[in-house]
Amino acid sequence: MEQVGYEAASANLDAVFAALADPTRRAILTKLAAGEASVNEIAAPFEMSQPAVSKHLKVLERAGLITRGADRQRRPARLNAKPMKDAIAWLEEFKQFWASSFDQLDALLEDLKNTDKWE
Q1: At CA 73, angle to CA 68 and CA 76, rounded to 5?
Q2: How many C-beta atoms surround the C-beta of residue 50 within 10 A?
Q3: What's the Cα-to-Cα distance from 15 to each of 12, 22, 28, 68, 114, rounded to whole Å?
Q4: What is the dihedral of CA 90, 69, 57, 23, to 10 degrees?
Q5: Cβ(36)–Cβ(78) below 8 Å
Q6: What is the spatial distance between Cα 58 and Cα 39, in angstroms, rounded to a whole number?
Q7: CA-CA-CA-CA torsion for 23, 27, 28, 32, nearest 10 degrees?
Q8: CA–CA separation, 65 vs 103, rounded Å?
Q9: What is the pLDDT of residues 33-77, one digit of tens each?
């Protein structure tokens, strides 16, 4: 079974979720939510080298979660929330499923509670 348009959307979501799977990259995104920052500014709170932070930035950039500017010798990174919006939309589908499932479970448990009272 093949879904039309699924491959492109799946590749983007795969890259976003893979990027978000790492706690260092999530921390970098949190920092960038406050505004753009250079690699050195991003690297400061971490116990890792600047090249290691640059690798994380490349993963985030490939996923489309950040953009890199050219400001002379400084290449500031900026948050790009669009791919996260797409991931949230995908997760929303499951949120609705789980909410419905929990509502059904609540109803079942309520029925079982009421049945136990009368037996």
Answers
A1: 25
A2: 13
A3: 5, 12, 16, 17, 48
A4: -60
A5: yes
A6: 11
A7: 150
A8: 35
A9: 999 999 999 999 998 898 999 999 999 999 999 999 876 677 899
Which pair of structure tokens corresponds to residue 20? 């978000």
Count of residues for the chain?
Answer: 119
Lowest mean pLDDT among 6-10, 29-33, 39-43, 79-83: 6-10
| Region label for 10, one of left (φ > 0), alpha (ψ between -120 and 50) or beta (otherwise) | alpha
Three-state SS for 97? helix
H-helix segments, the chain: 6-20, 23-32, 39-43, 50-62, 82-118
What pLDDT, on the 0 to 100 scale, is given for residue 119? 55
Which tokens go with 87?
Answer: 């991931």
